[in-house]
């Protein structure tokens, strides 16, 4: 499956909706994720700088209900972009939290405070996304 194609986007939607495997972290961490996710409603546009393409993920009441590939982030609540090298590193197992913390995946639009209130939910969703196999 090719990276940033409609087929990949739908596979990602299912993966982030299911969430990552719940291992290697305390049960309290996963309880926090569950609470943060329960009523979460927002749209994320995750872009690749070099191509101008975005994976647009729509969340409603804690479920990822839609995924699309677009050349425009549209009215997404949160727009984050990274270079192709960062996306490749994430697919190869790089730490998603570090990608955000070190601004390799950069929040370019959206309420910073609201975004960081659920950062661990976002990071775990990004971890689930990164496990979806894709060719460049």
UniProtKB/TrEMBL annotation:
Domain SCP2: 37-108
InterPro entries: SCP2_sterol-bd_dom, SCP2_sterol-bd_dom_sf
Coiled coil region boundaries: none
Gene3D superfamilies: SCP2 sterol-binding domain (3.30.1050.10)
A Pfam family recorded for this sequence: SCP2
Protein name (record): SCP-2 sterol transfer family protein
Organism of derivation: Nonomuraea jiangxiensis
Lineage of the species this protein comes from: Bacteria, Bacillati, Actinomycetota, Actinomycetes, Streptosporangiales
């Amino acid at each position: 499956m090719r990276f940033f194609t409609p087929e990949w986007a739908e596979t990602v939607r299912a993966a982030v909706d299911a969430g990552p495997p719940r291992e290697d972290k305390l049960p309290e961490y996963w309880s926090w994720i569950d609470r943060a996710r329960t009523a979460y409603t927002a749209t994320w546009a995750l872009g690749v700088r070099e191509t101008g393409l975005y994976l647009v993920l729509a969340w409603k009441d804690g479920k990822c209900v839609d995924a699309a590939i677009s050349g425009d982030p549209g009215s997404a609540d949160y727009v984050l972009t990274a270079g192709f090298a960062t996306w490749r590193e994430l697919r190869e197992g790089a730490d998603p939290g570090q990608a955000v913390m070190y601004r390799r995946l950069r929040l370019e639009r959206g309420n910073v405070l609201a975004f960081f209130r659920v950062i661990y939910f976002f990071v775990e969703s990004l971890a689930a996304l990164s496990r979806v196999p894709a060719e460049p």
